[in-house]
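Lay summary. Proteins are chains of building blocks that fold into shapes, and those shapes determine what they do. In this project we predict the shape from the chain. Here is one chain we studied, written as its sequence of building blocks.
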Amino acid sequence: MKFFKWLAIGIVVVLATLVAYVTLIFDLNDFKPRIVDQVKKQTGREFTIADPLGWTFFPSIGIKLGGISLGNPQGFTPADMVRIDAAVAEVKLLPLLSKEVEIAEVRIEGLEVNLVTLKNGASSLDGLAGSAEEPKSADAGDTGTLSLEKFDIGGVTIENARINIRDDSADSESKLALESFRLGQFSLGSFADFSYRFQADLGDMTASSDGKGQLLLSKDMAQLQIKEFTQEQLLKGAALPKGELSVNSKSALTAQLKDKSLKLILEELNIGDISAKGQIGANYGAKVPSLSLVLEVGDLDVDAWLPATSEAEAKAGEAKVKAEEPDLRGMKAVDLTADIKVSKVKVMGVSSSNWLMKASLKGGVLNISSMTADLYQGKLKASASIDGRKPVASYNFEKTIEGVQLLPLLKDAADVELLAGTAHIEVKGKGYSLLPDNIKRNLLANGSFDVADGALYGVNIPQMVRSAEAKLKGGTEAAPEERKTDFSKLSGSLNIKDGVANNPDLSMLSPLVRLSGSGNAKLVEQEIDYRLMTRLVATLEGQGGDSALSGVDIPLAITGSFQDPKFALDTQALFDAKLKQEADKAKDKLKDKLKDSLLKKLGGN
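And here is the predicted shape, written in a compact code that computers can read:
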């Protein structure tokens, strides 16, 4: 028993001697001025360590710092950008004897970060590069020099940290509470586990996030890797669909710190019911950073993301919102190439699939070189560009629609049954301003359309003719029939200028009806005005029998709104045309009688 007693006493004495040796040899406050000076040079900001650096001996030996602060630029409120109440680095004892620092654990308490953007655009992060002057090498004979042969961290723990973000220019403020951050065993060149949890108050929305993964910093500290990085976020707010939205992802990141480039691989991304995957590349070392995006998206139902509002509420909301031109000059701040695929898209009731888009952004000009999609048994092909270099953006586009079935398209888009058939439409145009009404007013475009084997709903032209004919004869109107006029071809050209779409050469052909004429549509007021001539072919057999008006040009007017067009025959013009036809017939008969009478008098046959 005495042996074990003296052995224990001996161990305690040795440990006490080692502790005394370390604390006497290493006076931590000798390094304090040098640490403060180096941080000031690197950041260009005031940096203070208010409390003396000291040792802790329980539960393990460690280095303690307190009252740490890094200032905001002069004139900012609050004055400190970063504050740390206390930081403790627990170190392993034996490696210190060989002047090797192996940190068992770092604990940070009372961390507060204040990021401010003033109304003039100045921010807390401005000028953090500090002085470009390289720090001078310490003199070899300087007793304050500490040569480290090895640097390991057993772990890092940060709890109850606060991050406050205030933007005076946008009159917004956000608060983020980092409940915990933990980094496992860390050494250069090896992967280390990490995890975090935070809550955020974003004003009109709250967010919570949990994440974990593994990170590696190369031995030359030139490359950072993060792998198996999983995140689970939950957003809550009145503006979100159903009041909340989940965002989950799994990704990997590689950053070349010296070359200032990175690559993010999105292995999985789920935003509500939307799934996606892809990769993002970035080069942030150039004067104008560049991004590359390759993205594959599953089914995208935009309508499900929109809040449910009545038509009256929507109009009231539009009245309250002052139209303001979007300023796209910020597009000059980054270059981008994008290759995007979307499986299905539903927006404003219109369904489409197999979207493919290739786009590039350079010098403030966005070019969509190719965009295709399957649309109601047909195909959409388009290209476009938007020039955001001026306060008011300009644009141009070309669009072709081939083989699209119009009836289901119009039914889904506007819940109207107006026109059916297989459409081929080509439009090319340009304009400026991205405000909805200004797009209609400033658009300059021309194109053509051709609809085959279709029907015009809301009007039965043959029935209208029969009813008008019956009135002329003093009879009753024809029995009501389905309000639809079949046709084999409907075609024409159009040009758009000053908010009016002009169609000078509308033509409709069918086995029974020929229709031609011109008209226009006011895009802002959503009003139409067409003056057409309808001519019946030889017979109306199959739609009510023969007609005495066959071959007569019958005026037809189409007026009203896009949503409720009105069709009307010009009965006075119809009467005049019929009267002229009858007069011509009478003249012909009279001529025949006079001819016969004259021949008899002359003794002819």
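What the prediction tells us: Helices lie at 2-25, 32-43, 93-97, 311-320, 406-414, 436-442, 461-472, 571-601.
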